[in-house]
Amino acid sequence: MGNTASFASLRIYIMHQKTENPVLSQALIVLMSIATGLAVASNYYAQPLLETIAGAFALSVNQAGFIVTAAQLGYALGLMFIVPLGDMFERRGLIVLMTLLSAGGMLITAMSSSVAWMIAGTALTGLFSVVAQILVPLAATLAAPQQRGKVVGTIMSGLLLGILLARTVAGALASIGGWRTIYWVASGLMVIMALILWRALPRYKEASGLNYPQLLASIFSLFSRNAALRTRALLGALSFANFSVLWTSMAFLLAAPPYRYSEAMIGLFGLAGAAGALAATRAGQLADKGKSRQTTSVSLLLLLVSWLPIWLGQYSIAALVLGIVVLDLAVQAIHVTNQAMIYRLMPEARSRLTAGYMTSYFIGGALGSLISASAYQYAQWTGVAIAGATLSLMNLLTWWLGKIDNPQVPA
Known about the structure:
- Helix content is about 80%, strand content about 0%.
- The chain is built from 18 helices and no strands.
- The protein starts with a helix and ends in a 6-residue tail after the last helix.
- The protein has a single domain (about 25-200, about 210-405), classed as MFS general substrate transporter like domains (Growth Hormone, Chain: A, Up-down Bundle), CATH 1.20.1250.
- α4 runs parallel beside α6, α5 runs antiparallel to α6 (about 115-130) and α7 crosses α18.
- It is mainly α.
């Protein structure tokens, strides 16, 4: 009897240690990076296929653009109402469940017989693919303080690679088996990833002491009390709006004369953008060294400058590729720096900080998609470039005013 009690006590102690002090190995960082990229990629498979999907469902350019917007709005809702649950529930179980539900959304899209069903499946996938934003603060929590920026940068590299390579993979598979193929394949991969995460992730629960309504209300409280969070959230929103302005309409540019590229060829442009992901870890390391102000300022200037070669992309593929690389590098550097900064604010509320920041981020992305589709319809590629440059100028102004109002904001 005594031995049984001792064994039970030892088991409880070991489980407690596993929950409270899990080890973040390099292998686990890589796995979380891949899972993050795979989850967020599901929102971007449609972008290089918009021309084909528009033809399949007899849609206009504006209507086709709403498919991307639906994914981003679903993602924004998930960020606001689901991600905060990471501060309430055990995170491994929550991550696995959300991964499976996201796979279910992609199955609905793959089987859709009308645009309404496609939008429903896309929105559902977007809603639960916010699992990526539970993985990121979990990695930040498990990381040693002096390596937090680097770890966040590595995970965010996986996220950006997922966003960008989604286009390449979707285009390639569409050329083989039609536009639905990517959704069948991706849903299967998500189920496999859910099983791997269940085996590999440590159990972890952050007890906030708040019920669900209080948890949601505290997000608004965090915004009202913290100028750094407000500034960084607005920078993120405008940066991701830039990203969406470019990528939402680029398929229309490349599918039209004089290029007339195929879906597979259009998807390959995601490889050019993937170069920006390589800057993610470096930006996190600079944040760890206290150089976030310089990183943010340089990145915002690069973001503005990138729109000149992007505009010239209607005449020159080389200019377009250069603009893509510079824009994606700048957007990713801003994003990684923003997250490294906000995770320092309140360690016990990282899921809610992520929810507030990333909700703003993806609302910016959704608005960018709408602006891009409208700009292209009414002013072609020049309209898209003007819209992107205008958003970049607004971002610089936000940063400048934020530093004036509170010199400590970009710490």
